[in-house]
Inverse folding.
């Protein structure tokens, strides 16, 4: 068959040569020759016997026993795979030693839980933090409720019982003794974190502190008219409830106002010293109103610090300190309103 294309003998082209990729007139439905199809005899097709096919016994197939095949002690399935030399800071996954081959997370090495089946850490931490904060809030307000009930009982006893009222008014040294005990226990609980965090010493100190301050409040209430004391208790309860509701619901953050409250406290301290020296009723009433307003702001500040979720928050371990500061806020508001309304006997 004549070549459909010019033949160049100098290039090794022989008659019948067809350029690669050009159609062959003799086989219009097949690929052109010299393109690997059909395979030509003598060019590795079909494979010849004795040239590696089929594999001959004794020529490396099958591998002889004793040369690593079969393995004498195969490693268990749960063994950790070797990852070779890894860059610094790379931690190889730990596999379950009991089988299964699933990588397990740190801190849960005995459970063998697949990593994909473990909750994300952010979700778990968030849920755990909320549960801890809620338990802390319940503990603080439970302790505060007990303190206020003790104080209410002592104030009522000193106000309504004539014999007890006459006793506390004629034995003023007990008032100063209770003041000294109050001051010592207060400074101990505020300044010594180990005391207020260690049970049962923290509750014992807090109980002594509560009894001392309750005796002081009861003695002061005993010097006022009974109707004024009852009215002041009711007003104090209403104010504290509304302030607590406002502090927990408002979007404004008062936890960053501690420095301003401190400055206001120093100003009122100086004003109180001046009012004591001058002994003027108007100055005394202004001082009492300022104290009531100041500790109302402190109640907002301390409530937001305890509830949390703001710029600053109180540690969940400080439930004794949280109850102490709230109790002081309430008692100071009560005593300030009692002094503001007057009605001394």
């Amino acid at each position: 068959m004549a070549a459909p294309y010019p033949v160049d003998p100098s290039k090794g082209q022989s008659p019948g040569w067809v350029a690669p990729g050009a159609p062959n007139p003799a086989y219009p439905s097949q690929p052109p020759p010299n393109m690997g199809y059909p395979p030509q005899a003598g060019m590795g097709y079909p494979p010849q016997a004795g040239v590696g096919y089929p594999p001959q016994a004794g020529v490396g197939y099958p591998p002889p026993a004793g040369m690593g095949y079969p393995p004498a002690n195969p490693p268990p399935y749960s063994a950790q795979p070797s990852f070779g030399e890894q860059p610094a800071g790379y931690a190889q996954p730990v596999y379950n030693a009991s089988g299964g081959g699933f990588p397990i997370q740190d801190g849960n090495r005995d459970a063998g839980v697949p990593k994909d089946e473990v909750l994300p850490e952010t979700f778990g931490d968030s849920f755990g933090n909320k549960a801890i904060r809620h338990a802390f809030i319940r503990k603080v307000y439970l302790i505060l409720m007990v303190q206020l009930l003790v104080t209410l009982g002592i104030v009522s006893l000193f106000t309504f019982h004539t014999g007890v009222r006459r006793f506390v008014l004629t034995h003023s040294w007990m008032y100063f003794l209770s003041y000294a005990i109050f001051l010592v226990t207060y400074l101990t609980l505020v300044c010594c974190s180990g005391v207020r965090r260690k049970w049962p010493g923290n509750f014992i100190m807090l109980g002594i502190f509560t009894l001392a301050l309750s005796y002081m409040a009861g003695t002061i209430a005993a010097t006022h008219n009974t109707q004024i004391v009852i009215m002041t208790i009711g007003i104090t309860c209403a104010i504290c409830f509304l302030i607590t509701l406002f502090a927990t619901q408002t979007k404004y953050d008062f936890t960053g106002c501690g420095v301003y409250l401190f400055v206001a406290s120093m100003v009122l301290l100086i004003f109180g010293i001046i009012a004591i020296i001058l002994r003027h009723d108007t100055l005394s009433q202004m001082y009492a109103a300022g104290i009531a307003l100041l500790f109302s702001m402190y109640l907002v500040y301390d409530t937001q610090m305890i509830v949390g979720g703001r710029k600053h928050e109180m540690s969940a371990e400080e439930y004794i300190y949280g109850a102490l500061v709230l109790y002081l806020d309430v008692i100071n508001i009560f005593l300030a309103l009692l002094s503001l309304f007057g009605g001394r006997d």
Remarks:
- The longest helix spans residues 121-160.
- The radius of gyration is 45 Å.
- The CA atoms of residues 157 and 277 lie 33 Å apart.
- Residues 127-341 form one domain.
